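Table 4 source record.
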Amino acid sequence: MLKRILITASLLLMPCAAGIAVADSNIQLKRLEHFISSHRIGGFDDFWLAKKLWPEEIVKLGLIFGYVDNRAACQELADILGARYTTAEYVCYRANNKLKPRPGS
C-alpha cells in the first residue's frame, strides 16, 4: 500500500517538476537572447535558426555562430530542415539586433 501511495504521489508531482523546468529554461533563453542581442560571439554577426509557426510566432531552434559566414551556415541548415520537414518554414534572422551589422555578415 505504501508503495502505491509513493508511486501515485510521484506521478502527481511530475507535472509540477516539469513545469518548473520549463519555466527555468524560458528564463534562461530570455537571458541568452538579451545578452546575444548586444554581444557577438566572435567577429561576425550571429543568427538564430527558427521555425515559423504563424506569421507572428516563431520558435528559436538554435544560435548559429563560429562560422566565417554565419548567415550562410544558418540558411544551409534552414534549407536542409525545410527539405526534410516540409510542413514548416525554417528561417534565419540576425541575433545581435542591438548592434550595427558587421560588413560581410
